[in-house]
């Protein structure tokens, strides 16, 4: 798709500069717009590839360290969310404080636009959580935070 969009942008720019137009300023404005659009599409593709590599790396790292993981009880002490245009959550982060006083942060990002939550479904401050982590792992090692959906727990 990016190759087709890039080729279309090159063709349109070539047409702009070879066909009669209102002036060079017109050509320049639309050249910048078309080239910028093509560059933006490639930037989005590159960002998606980087994110996928990061997630695959975290999954592989978790598979490696999972046998040594332990569960610890904790409580949610903070939450931050980002809303989509329709009011649903596009992502959220929870800060969980464990019994020994350590604070850990976990983020949720949907895999697709079909996986969405409402604000009321984000666990509130004070909610119980269970954190699966490896005690001797590096600070950037993945962890799993289990928290009940606030909309179905009384």
Overview of the molecule:
This is DUF3592 domain-containing protein. Keywords: Membrane, Transmembrane, Transmembrane helix. With 154 residues, this protein is α+β, with helices and mostly antiparallel strands. The mean pLDDT is 85. Helix 1 runs antiparallel to helix 2. The chain has two helices and five strands, in the order ααβββββ. The protein has a five-stranded antiparallel β-sheet with strand order 3-2-1-4-5, with no helix packed on it. 38% of the residues lie in helices and 26% in strands. The chain is elongated and about 75 Å long. A hairpin with a 5-residue loop joins strand 1 and strand 2.
In a nutshell, what does this entry contain?
The chain is built from 2 helices and 5 strands, in the order H-H-E-E-E-E-E. The protein has helices spanning 2-18, 24-65, and strands spanning 70-83, 89-98, 103-108, 128-133, 144-147.
List the helices and strands and how they pair.
Elements: H1 2-18, H2 24-65, E1 70-83, E2 89-98, E3 103-108, E4 128-133, E5 144-147
Which descriptors apply to this entry?
154 residues, single chain, 5-stranded antiparallel sheet, alpha+beta
Structural class: alpha+beta
SSE ordering = HHEEEEE
Overall morphology: elongated
Q: Which regions are unreliable across 5 or more consecutive residues at pLDDT < 50?
A: none
Radius of gyration: 23 Å
Mean pLDDT: 85
Major sheet attributes: 5 strands, antiparallel
Determine the N-to-C terminus distance: 48 Å
Q: Care to count the β-strands?
A: 5
Number of helices: 2
Organism: Lysobacter firmicutimachus
Keywords: Membrane, Transmembrane, Transmembrane helix
Transmembrane segments: 28-49
Protein name: DUF3592 domain-containing protein
